[in-house]
Amino acid sequence: MKLYKYFTALCLSTIMVVPFCMAQTKTTSNDFSTSFSGRKWWKEAVIYQIYPRSFKDSDGDGVGDLKGIISKLDYIKSLGVDAVWLNPIYSSPNDDNGYDISDYRNIMKEFGTMEDFDAMLKGMHDRNIKLIMDLVVNHSSDEHEWFKQSRSSRSSPYRNYYHWWDAERGKPPYRYSLFDVNHDAWMYDSLTNAYYLHYFSRKQPDLNWENPKVRQEVFDIMRFWADKGIDGFRLDAFQFVAKDTTFPYFPKGFEKNFIQYYAMQGNLHGYLQEMNKEVLSKYDVMSVAEGAGNTFEDAHNLVDEDRHELNMAYAFEGVDIAKMEGYSLLHFKNVFSKWDSAFAEKGWLAIFLANHDQARLVSRFGNDSPAFREVSSKMLTTFILTMRGTSFYYNGDELGMANAGFEKIEDFRDVQTLNEYQYQKNTGGDLNKVMARIKFGSRDNSRTPFQWDNSANAGFTTSNPWIKVASNYKTINAAAQEKDTNSCLNYFRNLVKLRKEQLALVYGKYTLLDKGNPAVYAYTREWEGMKLLVLLNFTNKTARTKTGLNLASSTVLLDNYSNPSKNGVLKPFEAIIYEVH
Ligand code: GLC
User: Fold this and answer.
1) Where do the Glycosyl hydrolase family 13 catalytic domain residues begin and end (predicted)?
2) What is the Å distance from ligand 1's center to 357 Cα?
């Protein structure tokens, strides 16, 4: 995971989907028993990420909840997705919207009850949708019973569940905190005259994984949820779990280098192997780590089947590219091609360009102006669903939802955004620049309520939402897009369907074409005699590509315009998928 991931937290209406019936093409079967041994449901799945706080409020308190999700299960099913990754729903004081857990075996009051959870899981399984839960165990909440006990006395049996530094030893060696208002990861606690470690906010103390009791507690929690029948775990911030607990000084000037000094340290792989042996191998669950280490070797070591650790790596180098001032497509192509080739023979990756920690997909990588929002959003969706790896798709992106772009700091809710602003204020930063950065890059941009329809508060809630609804909800909403066959929503559905029909899009060999083209991303995916070509224009201008393939004789399977090009000249943000003959 790149550190600046947190720093940045700072359809033209004529567009038409080419109906599939027009494109007579060979499709692949979903029968796992008759196929090659490498086939896995979690490789073929399109995983839809739901940010529960902002998805749908059922009880009018302004906060999304589980009953709200239940009421939208038919919508989720209609997308064609196979699994849902749900951001944390456990009891939490919500310093970091549920990433600060005070009880791992309970549901956050605002979200509902365990009965609601059971009903939601059943509702998903009845519809053949799997559920992946967020496992947040690098840290807990400071309101978790373990931490309350731990801080109560130096001799507490829970003392060693966290990292403490007794104050008589002097100030501990500096550690960087991502969310702390002073960016200092050591928080002094007068109760026992000691500092505790928190890489994230002060209310997220880091657990001590060197303590075998902590590991057993985590494995028990995992068994609790796996026994309920969930289908997978996403391991939050897991790279930071293992630390050198002698806490050496880092070289001056490098103390903030998360990549080098914080991620993938010590016995991380040992902990994962233990987790695999104790829990993962005993259930039919998939596992995906947030982050993929510092090198390809790190990433491979996480997911190499022979090592028995995790299934899938979720690498940040690609998603970290987009910047306020624009990005180079050549760089983008290079990064994704490099990761693909590193995993071509062994291991498996997640493919994504957005999640709850990033501003909106179309605002970061596309163009959210009225003229290009729809078409560029569809183009980016095409990328996510045609690359090798498991597609992770963030809720709202199927509508082409764009950055809310709040102008006032009072409108923001995210702990990281607010503390960064305060930090800059305290240290004399240029607040205009800071606000511009936050407006573009804050995580809150992707956390505004899901835009269901054009009624008050976008149909998300009947009262005041916990965070403002983006002002464009009257034009960008699901109800309007349901009626429009050319909408982003229906384009997404068609693309999901195509990915399910064409295993070449999942497993097929990836080959980059027209490598030096700064405007067009062109690649083929080949699998068992099927050759698909994807052309993506990443610019708002007409662009030409030379692939050396015969486009005239190829069949267009999908296009985000009504009249797909057959001569390699692409309209602004045009995306075309061909079957090459
Ligand atoms: C992960 C989550 C992020 C959270 C952080 C601390 O990066 O994705 O939302 O704030 O961990 O748990």
Assistant:
1) 49-447
2) 7
Q: How confident is the model at residue 32 (pLDDT cuts 50, 70, 90)?
A: low
Which residue's CA is the closest to the ligand 1 atom numbered 4? 99
Same domain, 222 and 125: yes
- What is the per-residue pLDDT for 565? 81
pLDDT tens for 395-422 read 999 999 999 999 999 999 999 999 999 9
Share of the chain above pLDDT 90, in %: 88
Q: Are residues 53 and 76 in the same domain?
A: yes
Residue 175 forms part of a structural domain = no
Question: Does ligand 1 lie within 6 Å of residue 85's CB atom?
Answer: no
Which of 430, 462, 496 is the last residue in one of the domains? Answer: 496
Cα 67–chain centre separation: 23
Same domain, 483 and 519: no
State which H helix or E strand residue 385 sits in. helix 373-386
CATH code assigned at 556 = 2.60.40.1180
What are residue 188's phi and psi, to 5 degrees? -80, 135
Over 80: is that where the pLDDT of 31 sits? Answer: no
Residue 74 lies in a domain: yes
pLDDT at 90: 98
Ligand 1 mean position, distance from CA 411 (Å): 21
Give the span between the Cα atoms of 494 and 341, in whole angstroms. 28
Residue 127: CB partners within 8 Å, gap ≥ 6? 73, 74, 76, 77
Position 93 pLDDT exceeds 60:
yes
User: In this predicted structure, what is the pLDDT of residue 253?
Assistant: 86
Known catalytic residue at 255: no
Query: DSSP 3-state helix, strand, coil percentages of the chain (rounded to 5)?
Result: 35, 15, 50
Between 83-92, 271-280, 296-305, 533-542, the lowest mean confidence (pLDDT) is in 296-305
Q: Is the same domain home to 481 and 564?
A: no
Q: How many domains does the chain have?
A: 2
Query: Among the options 290, 374, 397, 444, which is catalytic?
Result: 290
Q: Is residue 438 part of a domain?
A: no
Looking up residue 358, the CATH number of its domain turns out to be 3.20.20.80
**Structural domain span for residue 539:** 509-579
41 C-alpha vs ligand 1 centroid, how far in Å? 26
Ligand 1: does its nearest atom lie under 6 Å from the Cβ of 99?
yes
**Residue owning the nearest CA to atom 6 of ligand 1:** 99
Pair (297, 232) in one structural domain: yes
Give catalytic status of residue 290 as yes or no: yes
* Ligand 1 midpoint to CA 504 (Å): 33
Task: Give yes or no for a contact between 566 and 541, defined as CB atoms under 8 angstroms apart.
Answer: no
Q: What is the mean pLDDT of residues 380-384?
A: 98
Rounded to 10 deg, the angle between the 488-501 and 373-386 helix axes is 20
Domain match, 124 and 241 both: yes
In a domain, 347, yes or no: yes
